[in-house]
Write a structure and sequence with these properties.
single chain; about 140 residues; alpha+beta; Alpha-Beta Plaits; about 35% strand; globular
Amino acid sequence: MPKTPTLYDLMLLLSMQSEEDKRTKVIADVEAAITAADGEISRNQSWGQRPTAFKIDHQAEADYQLIQFSGPTSLLETLSHSLRINDAVLRFRIIKVVPGTPEAPEAAPPIVTAAATPAAAAAAPAQAEASEAPAAA
């Protein structure tokens, strides 16, 4: 029985201080490394410029890129090494996609606001119940 290739998500946060050509070259180099290792790219999405959760190298925003690919595990070390030494890359994360999990959405996910946090959602029903209670006379 042939082994199915492992699926990975590569999340890249690219520096907005780097030129557009340099950021494009990082993505092209990643794609070339994947295909050179007999891997296959199944999704390549640019999520655009977004704020980071905290400043990274004194930068509050980054250019987000999601690349979903399959390939041998030896490819992970090659990608990690090349991304770690590239100045245009602020952060990256390679995550193994577990079989049976839903695929990534076609569009970029919404930015979570304070109102969408679990604590705010838990407080909302309590506030609604308090406003529906009859006033004591």
